[in-house]
Hints:
Oligomer: single chain
Number of strands: 6
Number of helices: 9
CATH class of the largest domain: Alpha Beta
Amino acid sequence: MARLGVAFDLDDTLIESFPTYAALHQRVAADLGWPVPSERDLVAYDGGWRPTLRRLFPGRPIERFVARYDALADRHPYPAVAGALAVIDRLEHLEVPMWIVTSRSRRRLGLRMAQAGLAPARFAGIFCREDLPAPKPSPRCFEPVAAHPAAAGRRLVYVGDRWDDRAAARGAGLPFVGVATGPEAHTDLGPPPGALSLASVANLLPYLDDVDALAEVLDGGAT
Length: 223
C-alpha cells in the first residue's frame, strides 16, 4: 500500500461554511444599519476575520459587528459537506493519517467541527491560523504537518477548495486535489485545478479503492 498522508482544508472542503457565513454577515450588517455586503464581497478572506471586516466596513466600530455576530453564530450550524464523513471513514480504515490545515482561527473551530460530526481524535493534527508559521498561501503552512511523527515516510497530499490552497500546496511541492465546493468556484476564478479536480471531496471516495493507483495519479499530475 502506498504510504500516503492526507491533509484537508476545513471550510467548504469538509464543512459547508460559506452559505451560512455569508448569510450571517448580511444579517448582522442589516441589523446594525451598515451596508450589506454581497456574497461576492464576502468571498475574499483578507488575512483573517477582523481584517476582512475592516475591509468590508472601513471606519466602522468592528467590535460592534463581532458582538452581534457572536450573539447569533452558535445558533447556525455548519454541516459536513455531503459525503465527507464517508471519505474520512475510509481513510481511517486504510490507516492513512489525516490532518487539517486551515486559515480558520481557533475561535469556534471546535464548535464547527462538532456540528459537522468531525471528531478531532480522527485526525493526527489540526492546525489553525494560530498554529501556522505563516498562513496560506505560504507553503510554510505545512511545516507543522511535516514535523508530525505520523508524517514520517508519507507522501503528503492536500485537498482544498481555494486558489490559496493550491498555491500553498504547489509552493510546498505537494500534490493538490481541488474541489469545487468553495465560493471561488462561483466567481470568474473558478475552482482551483489540481492533480485531481473533483466536484466535491466525496468524489475522492472511489479513488480510495486502490491507494497505490491513487498515489500514481497524484504523483503524475500537476499540483
